[in-house]
Design goal:
about 325 residues; Rossmann fold; Dihydrodipicolinate Reductase, domain 2; 2 domains; 9-stranded mixed β-sheet; binds NADP nicotinamide-adenine-dinucleotide phosphate
Length: about 325
């Protein structure tokens, strides 16, 4: 698959390394801002990327690739994706797709008009282990409780405390725990249980109003999902899904579901999904197939979940209760 990458930051370095391992992705061109040209050049040399651009129009007019991977700070996703779609490129966009539901809807409609594929990376929903979890849910009987925790002390937090606010801690750049980690948890839950009836978010805010940590609750007719998020504390990740017949539990993160144990009432515990070093690749492997097959139906399904997740975040931030 021939792609062009927009951005030259941390995640781009990691993904170029991954593409090298996968062999099915070929990065033909890289776009970065003039301010990042040194970084762009280094990446282009290291990964033998044929063309490096600092002019977005020129980059998007390059016909050596038909799909762009957008990996810039959150508040530029909408603008970059819109420009790429207008030029008829398929788009794979980093999470969180957009800040606002209306922006996401507009991009989705534009992709339909232009007959382009559009996908937000969520890490989990295309993985093999996620599929196993989905297939095993009916064994749990009526499901009433879901809990998950995704807490990681950010390496950028100390800088934040010194007053140096990086985009990930800047509400103006759609930073904060909910946009950054919440989106992973939401994709995991919405993909399994669809949209909730109600949403509430209690957060602890930093000096610039950004949510540093918090608890998001999704309420369904017979189910409550509790999501614990943090960017300024560390704790083991986990997820548990509880039904009347039993539960499934994993000490892995919803981002990359690893080993998953299932225990039915009065039965022995069984391992239904195994950990694997390859799980980080899983989404990209499946995505390559979807884009190669031009499987619009599959993209539409995931895009509908993306729309639901963004709507939940918008709702949660609107209704937010926070502690000083
Ligand atoms: N790092 C991770 O582990 C990770 C994991 C999953 C998802 N993501 C997502 O990937 C995206 C990028 O994250 P990152 O960690 O790679 O961030 P990063 O290292 O800070 O790089 C961010 C990129 O955003 C662009 N950028 C920075 N400031 C900008 C500004 N003022 N105006 C326009 N563009 C600006 C830069 O593009 P140029 O190169 O053009 O200057 C830079 O390459 C985010 O949406 C994040 O949620 C990151």
């Amino acid at each position: 698959m021939k792609i062009g990458i927009m951005g030259s930051g941390d995640i781009v370095s990691s993904m170029l390394m991954l593409f090298e391992k996968l062999n099915s992705y070929e990065c033909k061109a890289l776009f970065c801002r003039p301010a990042s040209i040194a970084r762009g050049k280094k990446l282009a040399e290291q990964y033998q990327i044929a063309s490096l651009y600092t002019d977005m129009d020129e980059f998007l007019s390059d016909t050596s690739f038909d799909t762009v991977y957008i990996a810039v700070i959150n508040n530029y996703h909408y603008d970059y994706a819109k420009k790429a779609l207008l030029k008829g490129k398929h788009v794979i966009c980093e999470k969180p797709f957009t800040a606002a539901y209306e922006q996401a809807l507009e991009l989705y409609q534009l992709a339909n008009e232009k007959n382009c594929l559009l996908y937000e990376l969520s890490r989990s929903v295309l993985t093999d282990n996620y599929k196993i979890i989905q297939e095993n849910l009916p064994r749990l009987g009526k499901i009433h409780l879901v809990s998950t925790s995704l807490c990681h002390y950010s390496r950028r937090y100390e800088e934040y405390l010194k007053g140096n606010v990086m985009p990930v801690f800047d509400p103006k750049c759609n930073g904060g725990a909910l946009y950054d980690f919440g989106i992973y948890c939401l994709h995991f839950i919405v993909g399994l249980f669809h949209e909730p009836a109600a949403v509430s978010y209690h957060s602890q805010k930093g000096y610039n109003g950004v949510d540093l940590s918090g608890v998001l609750t999704l309420t369904y007719e017979d189910l409550i999902a509790n999501i614990v998020l943090s960017k300024n504390t560390n704790a083991p990740s986990y997820f548990t899904i509880q039904g009347e017949n039993g539960y499934l539990h994993s000490n892995s993160s919803v981002m990359f579901p690893g080993e998953v144990k299932l225990k039915l009432n009065n039965q022995e515990e069984e391992i239904i999904a195994f950990d694997s070093k390859e799980k980080i690749m899983s989404e990209w492997i499946h995505l390559e197939q979807i884009f190669r097959d031009k499987d619009k139906k599959a993209c539409d399904k995931y895009m509908k979940d993306t729309l639901a997740c963004i709507q939940i975040i918008n709702e949660a931030l609107k209704e937010e209760h926070y502690e000083n």
